[in-house]
Amino acid sequence: MRLLKVSLLGSVAVTSAITGAQAADLPIKKAAPIEYVRVCSAYGAGFFYIPGTDTCLRVSGRARFEVGYNDGYSRNQGAGDTTGYRGLARINLDARTQTGYGTLRAFVRLEFASRTGYSNFASGTQTRIGNAFSALGQDQFGRAQQFVSTEKAFIQFAGLTAGRASSFFDFYANDYEIIGGALGSNLASTNLLAYTSKLGDSGFSASLSLEDPTFRKNTIFSASVAAANAAAGTSSFATFGALNAPSPVFLGFNAAGQPTGVGFVDVIERNRMPDFVGALRYDAAWGSAQVSAAVKDVNTGNFLPNQFLGTTGDGAALTAANAVSRQRPSTEYGWAIQGGVKFNLPFIAPGDGLYLQGAYGEGATLYTGYSNYSGSYASNTNNVSGASFNQFFNDSTLNPLTGRLELSRSFTVVGSYLHYWTPEWRSAFFASYGELSQAPGARAAQGIASALVGGGPGAPGTRTFALNQTLRDTYQIYTGASVIWSPVKDLDIGLEGIYTKIGVTNGRVVDLNKSFGVSQTNIPLSARTVSSFDTVQLRMRVQRDF
Prior knowledge:
By secondary structure, this protein is mostly beta strands. The protein is 11% helix and 44% strand. A hairpin with a 2-residue loop joins strand 6 and strand 7. Residues 1-24 and 230-240 have low confidence and may be disordered.
């Protein structure tokens, strides 16, 4: 037995030795090295190297809740909402790489929101431009909206900016506000190709930008679309856009030169050229200043086939064959100029600042920002629930007597001051004023046309013409203040209140909320009239950036 045990132990030892010798002959597989994420300090806090590359990336975002109250004037169809809610999510990706030409940067921002209630939240403007889609339920139609936006997606390299970015025309852009309705240009997202050059070490820089015209087109006035929107009584009607927007032009005349027949031009604008934007900017320790200018085209489609009314001068029915020969209206060119200055005021309190800005334009209401509060991309609109009358923000009207496009004129001025009471408490105070004037004679010309085809302000000299809201020159006053508490870094809890007054610059218009059964084409002597209306809005916000 003892001899057996010794034999077994010897066998095990020999086997182990042989196995160890064989194992020593095999190559040893090393564990893959772990590449830890490294901090990138070249571009500020929050950046890290993408493993395996020399590109630095920063991931950030935002979560926001808002609830608001807005005056309501009626509970008619499409009106009556006084409260609104919004939950918003934002994701930012900022990637930068150092090259021999400088920093190569790509920036992406995506925003998603659930919005309900009155039109400042469930925005008709965002639906019309394609950034949002609305609910269609009986109680939810136009009152519940999902917002999905590629807010930013641009590349910057050696002075070039290409992609979706903020317009180079903008300066103040509602920087100190919660609601963001002060009058002035604020186009946070457009598609563009731009080049910026720093002029030495002087603090000056110059930019030239070719920008997508789609996002700066307010409409050419169309009597048919304006009448349809007014009849619908709700901005939600504009959710379903028309394939064309007919506007009348007289083509048949009698021996005395009086119009007897009319054709219709499709006045939906085509993208024929980019908007040209130029900006000269100065930055220094005391603040910054900028002068910017823009040029855009205003154009139409053709005469609509088989849509002719009335007669020729000899009494025959007007047709395409016997209408007075006329080309489609020639293209006109709108323009705008804006100047702004920002003062840093650390001697009052660290972080204090003051913006002053003014803009003027012709055929360019989205550059002057006159429609910033009420809404855009519609022939007429208003975001005040059940307002007494709508405003017309058209960039141009097609004169039915001459067949020419005639540009509107608008201007805005704004001032905004931010003050830190303590490092945790701050307030903003802001006010703006603006006016929009239609082309001289445009309203009267549309009235003459409406006497034949309807849909406009009615024949000049009538009560309907005098009190109709269509193509009236208007003004806006917008002022407000806020208080924001930041108990910890990147957390804001704030409340803002604004007051807005909207009116016609001369005369009066029928008050559709206090004149039951009255329409813009039927205004009896008993109809109530107004020259202005006003509203108050409150909004509370809780926001966390990370």
